Amino acid sequence: MVSLNEVMHDQQGVTAVFSDGTVSRFHGAWLRDNDRGQSARHADNDQRLFDITELPDDLSIEGAVVTDDHLDVAFAADGHVARFPVSWLFDNRYDREHETVLPDLWGAHLKTSLPVFDFSRVLEDDRTRMAWLQAVRDQGFGILENVPCEEGMVCRAAEIFGYVRETNYGRLFEVRSEENPVNLAYTGLGLNVHTDNPYRDPVPGLQLLHCLISNPDGGDTLLVDGFHVAETLRRENPAAFGLLCENWVPFRYRGDSSDLQARGPIIQLNDRGRIIAVRYNNRSAAPFDLPAEKMEAYYDAYRLFAKMLHRPEFELTFKLTDGQLMAFDNQRVLHGRKGFGGGKRHLQGCYADKDSLLSALRVLEAQS
Ligand SMILES: [Fe+2]
């Protein structure tokens, strides 16, 4: 348990020396806004009880005292004392490098160690359920087997961790050969790897696909770890990587009663430079509308990324068999399939949101 060896203060903030030697600076406004005392946070839900506008304009500090495992900070303007458990202060220190935990990047080699879990065990056993959700979070996908080959089970699987996200395709959608297909997915043609629905805002974070009838003559699943390809592009061609991150491009889907449009970058970074999303869908990419002077270089970068997606070392292929169900991160893992002949093939799919999966997983991890 970390403790405080020394505390120094001036009007602007507090400098804390923790028992492990870490020295951290906390500013007056931050300390007052994050007051952990009883008058500042609700006892039951820990939510903040005041608005930032209610604080005095002057948030200069008058004193800082350590009592047992707490730090008390007094403010000059109104004499208010904010209280902080030392361990909380340590966990929330902000003048440091934030660690970037890279996800488990993978490629074709994963074929021999696919993350597969038994459906009944996932339902009954917290640890197995946690392992399935961890696979989706860390590797971008996790497969269930022995899922009953009954219609609608794909929604039941989404309800294990969250809620089905209904769209204009319905609560679930059928992936099988159709006579007048509204989408290439409903033919027997092969499908290039892609992320689904980049024309939505927000893009569905998760997709689930349940195989009810597999085809003996093809229709194999292709998966590509978009984060792995994007990280490789960042290393091999930083300029091309930058173009795909910095410029937003349009996507569109038009159906009988829908006209969905959204813009976004092919590779999306967060404020710390970490890749958080990939959008790639050859079928629904709308005419790019970048400034004329950027178009040529952008297309070079776009074509390079598209070619990299087809590199054999990135392409994971396997056959989703009857009763298998795959949940995957639709903003990381690109999916596609090989073509198949005239025979039957039937999958059902649905979308869900990633935040509820991550929330369910955090709760399970905290209990374990
Ligand atoms: Fe798709």
TrEMBL record:
KW Metal-binding (keyword) present: yes
GO terms classed as biological process: carnitine biosynthetic process
Coiled coil feature spans: none
UniProt keyword list: Dioxygenase, Iron, Metal-binding, Oxidoreductase
GO molecular function, one term: metal ion binding
Superkingdom of origin organism: Bacteria
InterPro entries reported for this sequence: AlphaKG_dependent_hydroxylases (IPR050411), GBBH-like_N_sf (IPR038492), TauD-like_sf (IPR042098), TauD/TfdA-like (IPR003819)
SUPFAM superfamilies per UniProt: Clavaminate synthase-like (SSF51197)
Cofactor: L-ascorbate; Fe(2+)
Span of domain TauD/TfdA-like: 107-351
Record-stated family: Belongs to the gamma-BBH/TMLD family.
Alphabetized PANTHER family for the sequence: GAMMA-BUTYROBETAINE HYDROXYLASE-RELATED (PTHR10696), OXIDOREDUCTASE AIM17-RELATED (PTHR10696:SF25)
Protein name per the record: Gamma-butyrobetaine dioxygenase
Originating organism: Aestuariispira insulae
